[in-house]
């Protein structure tokens, strides 16, 4: 617990020593059915050389947040408010030209499904070389050498020949390695990995995770690691941000959040996760209900319709009042600290053992 | 002549694309009507005079100049599809006949004065022919200086070749009069390979004593020979130029124009034939430099273009197609456009032919004749510019036409006389609901008229079974002797202005055969005898016999109910000069046209 | 790839053979005396027999079919002369060799197709891509709206309107006509301008809609987003990444359109009184000119098969997954 000292009301983002600082980010899409509040008042920081894990169900706003950081949202249908400061530079107001210079260079992204995320029409080599040439002004030859170097680094055998292959000639794990190599071509300071291992089988997953960790140590990049898999995150992240309905509901160091989770939603996530060595006959406990519609989010705490502990809170606060997320290690919940601890120890922890 | 077949085939494509052909023409009277009627009756009147046979003086060229004619320029010709044939031996229908007039020359030709009076003159021959032996022998001398397009002088051998090649299998679509007169109905057996294997007809049949003389020997008088020889079918095919089947694509010209380019289904270009000598020709002119045919323009489009009269359409004419029926009103109601039309009778008489093998009681035939609403039938074929109610079976284009002849009161009661018809049906003892099989062609006209006939005959108690026949084979189907139909609409037109070319093929009982145009199978000894006698007489003397035969056929036999005479209306561009209706061709007079501003 | 092409070519030949056989026997299954169709005014039994003999209709059907198939490969002799391979027979009606008739008509059909193609590809793809690029703007709305309206037009409607304005009432242009390019390039161009414009207008509208929607679809592809995430410029992403994928559906439709245009644009030809393959096909089938109909059908089938193969080759060029599988 070192980085997450600044919170929603941080007065001066530039005063932060964070490499990336997001403040009160609001992202709204206008659709035919109405306005979707995909991200609603999100704040977090990431430091150099550290990994921030972002977890949450699909549709919780994880991916949107990260696309917004790189400005990859559709400008016509999306409204973005708040602040995104990367290395002292405001990104929301930055021009498209500036963003182009930044993307793939200072900040790179690794996507979930490498089969669809790589163009089927061009060779892996070309797709790797392109951003390098663009950002560094390198020649084709230099770009090729760099690409082969990176392919080698991510563990692709015979990178000289594989350079000329097309993505469909690669296996799934190889494609993901190539994807990572592509993201690392220009030594990015920030790497956003959007569920980079979801499409892979478990052994390959582990290799990729190891690779990412090794590379982080070598390059010293900051990583935002998005996943819905708490198992994966425990190996990767230094800090953790739990998102629900476009908001952060809990934050803290990975260790804290996983050991002593404070938010009923986090409890639900942990309970619904199968564990190695667990009793096979023991039923998993899924979170009841389904994620809320972001077109028309629930009043008060967005989790209250699915929360089993609303009765513990006096009055109708859960439905009426939106709980705030305090600074540092915190959870956005109306339960008191004591209640949280009691419930966790009495009801939740037994299920996790 | 049966224009119906060839025209309907050509019209198919246009109809298929246009979807439907509106049969209009039924419209309020306009001021033009009486004038138009008067004019066509004028033209018809001129056609009533018997044709004269002209001497050498009248046969000498050059032809009288057309008033105001200028030389030069090219006339654009709009046609819906290809000419049926270019080999003269194969030419029998009018589209190709018009073409033949420009390109081919025969022994004789029709000369038409500005009043529409017809004369037969010598064309390649010096005169219309010298008969001897009571009309059984005809002698023709050839003019000097008649050459084909390559400059070869035409000799009597070429004339013999022309006749003899009609005996071979190369020719199957042309007229058969002269061959039949020379060698009988089985003429092909006399010279199965034509002249192509070195054999010729004996001198007792066709004689060429020297290079300039041809003598025809018949076993009976053939007074109509000069007119028969004027048909395109007997135009000269020079022996040296004959390429048999290929000749139909590339004929050698003797006339003022020759084929310079022919593309099947697309276009045809005629240019001046420099070997043609005006001094040898008393009929044709060579005013324009050539004719460009576009053979892809349907009637609707032809009419549209000519009404608009823009650009190349100013120099354009219709060939044998008529104004689109749907646009007739646009044409006749616009004085400026109406001025650019030729109107006149065509030689066809539409009649309801009865199969006499099936409908044997004349009372029934008469009843049906009375019942047919002739006016409605005309409306279904283009209205008053497409036809006129017929009283008899002789067209207004035939000598001896009597406009008042109306034994069944069709003119007086254009919608039919149902009272009279019902009376006759009662007398004949026909039971209500008796079945009649009516065969009709699946052309738009045939289909429209079928409805009218079915309805009219139902009113007098018949249950009409209408049987549709593909228009392309309609005449072949009903031409079968053992056809299963009771009645059918047929049209027939003269081959030359003589009753012999109507009565003989259509009503002569001795001509009954599969494929013969005697569709009613009439075989009346009296009629047969009158025909036999009339054929031996000069046209003027024969007239009375033909009239007698006509009355006998219409009033006493009634093998076919007269329905209507066909008419045509054609448009031409504003730069076309000398345009007039030709009595001989029954279309625009192609010998007369020129460009006002070449 | 080569193997694939050989395999495709062999099956194309087999399909052509089947089409030939099918048409041939289908026509003869209809009880129809073809001789009667060419029989003119003197349709006596004798003349019918002469025609039947001239057309070879007196032989058994199987012999006729054999002669026909042999003619395609080796040529054959007719009364009008030797018909060299590929001999598709002689028209019942005109007596011309079918192949010659087709070759005579083809330049017009080819000119119509190529001229129209150049215009509608240029404008259609251009407008469609512009609309996709400017998605949601006035430009896009105008282009999409106009293309929806125009693509619901038909040549037989638009053609007469254009003729009415430019030819019949103002006389600014002549009626369309075909002059071979080799005779007079400018007359060729002017003569076909109206048909091209009309045809291309409708096709342009269709291709605008298609290219717009496929481009938009492609722009939403993940790999296109990846390219942007790499910092590639919008233009680069648009023309390199999205366009490459959009070409596949466009090439597919283009192949279909081209093969039907080359087999003869019937409506265009009749609307403008032009004589191309389409008119030939329609007229021949209406006059039951069997050899010509078969010829036109085989000709059309040839283009469909050829273009199918060409489209497959194009796929291979565009998409390495096809090329390398």
Automatic annotation (TrEMBL), chain A:
Compartment annotation: Cell membrane
Record PROSITE patterns: ABC_TRANSPORTER_1, ABC_TRANSPORTER_2
MF terms in GO: ATP binding
Residue intervals of the ABC transporter domain: 22-270
Topology in membrane: Peripheral membrane protein
Primary location class: membrane
4Fe-4S keyword on record: no
Keyword terms, alphabetized: ATP-binding, Cell membrane, Membrane, Nucleotide-binding, Transport
PANTHER family per UniProt: DIPEPTIDE TRANSPORT ATP-BINDING PROTEIN DPPD, OLIGOPEPTIDE TRANSPORT ATP-BINDING PROTEIN APPD
Family: Belongs to the ABC transporter superfamily.
Protein name per Swiss-Prot or TrEMBL: ABC transporter ATP-binding protein
From TrEMBL, chain B:
Region called Disordered, residue ranges: 26-59
Ranges that cross the membrane: none
Source organism, top-level taxon: Bacteria
Keywords recorded for this protein, A-Z: Signal
SUPFAM superfamilies reported in the protein's UniProt record: Periplasmic binding protein-like II (SSF53850)
Compositionally biased intervals (Basic and acidic residues): 32-42
Signal sequence residues: 1-22
Full protein name: ABC transporter substrate-binding protein
Source organism (scientific name): Streptomyces ureilyticus
UniProtKB/TrEMBL annotation, chain C:
Family statement: Belongs to the binding-protein-dependent transport system permease family.
Compartments in which it is found: Cell membrane
InterPro entries, per database record: BPD_transp_1_N, MetI-like, MetI-like_sf
Superkingdom to which the source organism belongs: Bacteria
Pfam families per the UniProt record, alphabetical: BPD_transp_1 (PF00528), BPD_transp_1_N (PF19300)
Upper taxonomic lineage: Bacteria, Bacillati, Actinomycetota, Actinomycetes, Kitasatosporales
Main subcellular location: membrane
Protein name (Swiss-Prot/TrEMBL): ABC transporter permease
């Amino acid at each position: 617990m070192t980085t997450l000292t600044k919170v929603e009301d941080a007065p001066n983002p530039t005063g932060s020593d964070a490499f990336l600082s997001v403040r009160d980010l609001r992202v709204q899409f206008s659709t035919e059915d109405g306005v979707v509040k995909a991200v609603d008042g999100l704040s977090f920081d990431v430091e150099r050389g550290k990994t921030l894990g972002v977890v949450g169900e699909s549709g919780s706003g994880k991916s949107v947040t990260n696309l917004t950081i790189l400005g990859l949202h559709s400008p016509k249908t999306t409204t973005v408010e708040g602040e995104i400061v990367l290395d002292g530079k405001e990104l929301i107001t930055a021009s498209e030209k500036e963003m182009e210079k930044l993307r793939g260079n200072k900040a790179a992204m690794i996507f979930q499904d490498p089969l669809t995320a790589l163009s089927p029409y061009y060779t892996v080599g070309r797709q790797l070389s392109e951003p390098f040439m663009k950002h560094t002004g390198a020649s084709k030859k230099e770009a090729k050498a760099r690409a082969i170097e990176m392919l080698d680094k991510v563990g692709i055998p015979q990178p000289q020949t594989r350079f000329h292959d097309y993505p469909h000639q690669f296996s799934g794990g190889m494609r993901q390695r190539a994807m990572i190599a592509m993201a690392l071509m220009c030594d990015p300071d920030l790497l956003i990995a959007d569920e980079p291992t979801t499409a892979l089988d478990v052994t390959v997953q582990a290799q990729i995770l190891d690779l990412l960790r090794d590379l982080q140590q070598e390059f010293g990049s900051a990583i935002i690691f998005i996943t819905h898999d708490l198992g994966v995150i425990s190996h990767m992240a230094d800090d953790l941000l739990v998102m629900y309905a476009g908001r952060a509901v809990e934050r803290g160091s990975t260790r804290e959040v996983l050991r002593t989770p404070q938010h009923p939603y986090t409890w639900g996530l942990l309970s619904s996760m199968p564990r190695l060595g667990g009793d096979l006959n023991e039923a998993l406990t899924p979170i009841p209900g389904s994620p809320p519609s972001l077109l028309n989010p629930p009043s008060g705490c967005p989790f209250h319709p699915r929360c089993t502990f609303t009765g513990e809170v006096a009055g109708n606060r859960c439905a009426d009042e939106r709980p705030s997320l305090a600074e540092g290690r915190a959870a956005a919940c109306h339960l008191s600290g004591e209640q949280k601890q009691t419930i966790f120890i009495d009801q939740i922890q037994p299920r996790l053992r | 002549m049966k224009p119906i077949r060839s025209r309907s085939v050509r019209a198919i494509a246009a109809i298929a694309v246009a979807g439907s052909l509106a049969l209009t023409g039924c419209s309020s009277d306009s001021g033009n009507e009486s004038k138009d009627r008067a004019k066509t009756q004028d033209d018809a009147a001129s056609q009533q005079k018997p044709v004269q046979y002209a001497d050498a003086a009248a046969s000498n060229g050059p032809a009288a100049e057309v008033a105001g004619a200028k030389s030069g320029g090219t006339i654009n010709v709009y046609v819906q599809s290809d000419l049926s044939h270019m080999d003269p031996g194969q030419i029998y229908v009018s589209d190709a006949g018009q073409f033949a007039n420009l390109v081919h020359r025969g022994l004789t030709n029709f000369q038409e004065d500005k009043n529409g009076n017809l004369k037969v003159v010598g064309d390649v021959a010096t005169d219309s022919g010298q008969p001897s032996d009571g009309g059984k022998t005809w002698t023709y001398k050839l003019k000097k200086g008649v050459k084909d397009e390559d400059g070869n002088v035409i000799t009597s051998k070429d004339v013999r070749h022309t006749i003899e090649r009609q005996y071979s299998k190369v020719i199957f679509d042309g007229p058969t009069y002269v061959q039949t007169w020379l060698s009988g109905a089985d003429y092909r057996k006399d010279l199965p390979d034509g002249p192509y294997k070195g054999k010729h007809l004996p001198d007792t049949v066709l004689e060429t004593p020297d290079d300039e003389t041809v003598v025809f020997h018949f076993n009976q008088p053939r007074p109509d020979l000069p007119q028969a020889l004027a048909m395109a079918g007997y135009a000269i095919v020079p022996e040296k130029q004959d390429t048999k089947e290929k000749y139909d694509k590339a004929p050698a010209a003797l006339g003022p124009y020759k084929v310079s380019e022919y593309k099947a289904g697309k276009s045809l270009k005629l240019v001046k034939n420099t070997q043609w000598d005006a001094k040898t020709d008393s009929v044709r002119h060579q005013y324009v430099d050539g004719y460009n045919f576009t053979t892809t323009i349907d009637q609707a489009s032809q009419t549209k273009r000519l009404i608009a009269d823009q650009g190349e359409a100013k120099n354009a004419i219709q060939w044998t197609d008529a104004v689109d029926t749907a646009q007739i009103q646009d044409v006749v109601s616009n004085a400026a456009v109406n001025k650019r039309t030729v109107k006149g009778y065509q030689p066809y008489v539409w009649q309801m032919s009865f199969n006499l093998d099936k409908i044997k009681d004349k009372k029934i035939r008469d009843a049906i004749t009375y019942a047919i609403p002739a006016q409605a039938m005309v409306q279904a074929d283009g209205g008053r510019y497409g036809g006129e109610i017929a009283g008899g079976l002789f067209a207004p284009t035939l000598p001896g036409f009597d406009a008042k002849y109306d034994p069944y009161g069709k003119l007086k009661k254009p919608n039919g006389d149902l009272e009279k018809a019902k009376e006759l049906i009662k007398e004949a003892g026909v039971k209500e609901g008796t079945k009649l099989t009516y065969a009709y062609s699946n052309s738009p006209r045939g289909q429209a008229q079928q409805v009218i006939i079915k309805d009219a005959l139902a009113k007098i108690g018949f249950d009409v079974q209408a049987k549709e026949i593909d228009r392309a084979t309609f005449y072949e189907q009903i031409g079968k002797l053992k056809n299963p139909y009771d009645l059918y609409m047929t049209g027939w037109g003269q081959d030359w202005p003589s009753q012999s070319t109507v009565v003989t093929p259509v009503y002569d009982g001795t001509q009954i055969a599969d494929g013969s145009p005697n569709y009613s199978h009439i075989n009346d000894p009296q009629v047969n005898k009158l025909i036999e006698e009339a054929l031996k007489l000069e046209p003027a003397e024969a007239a009375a016999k033909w009239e007698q035969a006509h009355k006998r056929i219409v009033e006493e036999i009634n093998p076919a109910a007269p329905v209507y005479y066909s008419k045509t209306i054609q448009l031409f561009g504003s730069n076309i000069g000398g345009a007039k209706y030709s009595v001989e061709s029954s279309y625009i007079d192609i010998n007369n046209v020129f460009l006002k501003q070449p | 790839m080569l193997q694939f092409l050989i395999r495709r070519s062999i099956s194309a030949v087999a399909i052509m053979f089947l089409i030939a056989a099918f048409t041939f026997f289908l026509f003869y299954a209809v009880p129809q005396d073809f001789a009667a169709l060419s029989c003119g005014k003197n349709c006596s039994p004798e003349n019918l027999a002469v025609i039947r003999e001239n057309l070879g209709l007196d032989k058994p059907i199987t012999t006729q079919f054999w002669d026909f198939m042999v003619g395609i490969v080796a040529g054959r002799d007719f009364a009008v002369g030797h018909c060299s391979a590929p001999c598709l027979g002689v028209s019942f009606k005109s007596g011309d060799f079918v192949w010659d008739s087709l070759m005579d008509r083809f330049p017009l059909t080819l000119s119509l197709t190529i001229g129209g193609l150049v215009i509608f590809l240029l404008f259609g793809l251009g407008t469609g891509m512009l609309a996709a690029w400017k998605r949601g703007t006035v430009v896009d709305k105008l282009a999409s709206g106009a293309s929806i309206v125009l693509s619901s037009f038909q040549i037989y409607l638009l053609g007469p309107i254009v003729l009415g304005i430019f030819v019949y009432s103002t006389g600014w242009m002549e009626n369309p006509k075909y002059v071979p390019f080799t005779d007079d390039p400018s007359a060729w161009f002017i003569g076909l301008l109206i048909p091209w414009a009309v045809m291309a207008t409708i096709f342009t509208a269709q291709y605008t809609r298609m290219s717009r929607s496929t481009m938009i679809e492609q722009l939403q592809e993940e790999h296109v987003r990846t390219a942007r995430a790499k910092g590639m410029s919008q233009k680069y992403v648009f023309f390199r990444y999205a366009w490459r994928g959009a070409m596949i559906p466009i090439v597919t439709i283009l192949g279909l359109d081209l093969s039907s245009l080359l087999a003869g644009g019937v409506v265009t030809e009749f609307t403008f009184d032009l004589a191309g393959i389409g008119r030939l096909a329609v007229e021949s089938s209406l006059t039951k000119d069997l050899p010509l109909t078969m010829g036109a059908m085989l000709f059309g089938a040839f283009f469909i098969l050829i273009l199918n193969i060409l489209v497959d080759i194009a796929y291979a060029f565009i998409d390495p997954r096809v090329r390398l599988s």
